[in-house]
Design a protein that fits this description.
Number of helices: 12
CATH architecture of the largest domain: 3-Layer(aba) Sandwich
CATH topology of the largest domain: Rossmann fold
Shape: globular
Number of strands: 13
Order of helices and strands: EHEHHEHHEEHEEEHHEEEEEHHHH
Distance between the termini: 33 Å
CATH superfamily of the largest domain: Toll/interleukin-1 receptor homology (TIR) domain
């Protein structure tokens, strides 16, 4: 028994264990509300359907395979059959992690979504599925300043990216009691030091709360901040809010998002891989050469490029018996990560 589906919307297959059924239904509701089509087994499988064939049809139909992952899913033979089928078909697999259970070996390098903060997790899921992102007003460059009760002030330049990531830099401004004291003590160099900042952001349209979580590293120390700002995205001036410590933050948009150094570096790796494929596509050593490029690029980079280096090393170290499986595993990881077409 077959069904016809329109092709104009993102199609998502939701895999879950029966114990996590309530979470799967909640995710289905969210995705449906944002314009996706979903396949949830008990909703889409008719009584007379052949269960395995119907599931395979659903996976083949889908654009994305949403894996609701937990301890119960890890012990479910049925869930394993579903994600293995999706993996072999080269589907984009999105793990939605409910607890600390390790992902399967074949999926351990995928970027996963953690629902420990459900609001942020669901927002990231919508971004990954490209649902509603066109109307999102917040990606871009922002200047941010924070006032720590008049004692010290900080200023930052942050890039809020489409995928929910935040990257930028910041430092101590020359205002505030602590800054003045540093100047008097001859520690003015602290005021010019720029500190790398990274993190994530999300926006909940229901509460109209923009949440920015950032971590700054300096002098061997880390500072974590979670900033919550009530905003509609229509404001023409600055937007302001507080972090969990009660400090006041103000953000002002300063421009559209340029390509970051990290994105430029990733594109260089993609170009190198594609050039190698174009020139050596008939070579039996091509997979090993691609693996060497990945490992070398990551070792040279100061950033986490997200390359499947674990799978690359397994391929390089494989013997005749394990090489075919390691090769397939590595190439599929490159494709699912959009490193090669």
């Amino acid at each position: 028994m077959s069904k016809k589906y329109p092709s104009s919307r993102s199609k998502v297959f939701i895999s879950h264990s029966h114990i996590d059924r309530h979470t799967a239904v909640e995710l289905q509701t969210i995705l449906d509300e944002h314009g996706a089509q979903t396949f949830l087994d008990q909703d889409e499988i008719d009584t007379l359907d052949n269960l395995p064939d119907r599931v395979r049809d659903g996976i083949a139909w889908s654009d994305y395979f949403l894996l609701v992952w937990s301890a119960s899913a890890a012990t479910s033979a049925w869930v394993r059959r579903e994600w293995e089928t999706a993996y072999k078909r080269g589907k984009t697999i999105i793990p939605y992690v409910l607890d600390r259970t390790d992902l399967p070996h074949l999926l351990d390098e995928l970027v996963y979504i953690d629902n420990s903060d459900m609001q942020r997790g669901n927002s990231k899921l919508l971004k990954v599925l490209k649902l509603g992102s066109r109307r999102d007003p917040f990606p871009g460059l922002w200047e941010a300043s924070v006032d720590a009760f008049g004692m010290v002030a900080g200023n930052y330049r942050l890039e809020l990216r489409e995928n929910g990531q935040v990257e930028g830099e910041g430092g101590i401004s020359n205002t505030g009691f602590t800054s003045q004291l540093a100047g008097e003590m001859g520690l003015g160099n602290l005021l010019s030091m720029r500190i790398p900042v990274y993190g994530t952001w999300s926006y909940d349209r229901g509460s109209k709360i923009l949440t920015i979580e950032v971590t700054a590293k300096a002098l061997g120390q880390q500072q974590h901040d979670t900033i919550r700002i009530h905003a509609t995205g229509l404001e023409k001036g600055a937007i302001s809010g507080e972090d969990l410590g009660g400090r006041k933050w103000m953000l002002r948009r300063v421009g559209n998002r340029p390509r970051s150094p990290l994105e430029a570096e990733k594109q260089q790796v993609r170009d190198a891989l594609q050039k190698m494929i174009d020139t050596g596509k008939d070579s039996p050593t091509l997979p090993t050469m691609l693996a060497a490029v990945c490992v070398g690029a990551q070792e040279k980079s100061q950033h986490n490029l997200g390359l499947p280096t674990k799978k690359a090393r397994r391929l390089i170290q494989a013997d005749e018996r394990t090489f075919p499986a390691a090769c397939q595993d590595f190439v599929q990881a490159l494709q699912s990560g959009h490193w090669i077409s």
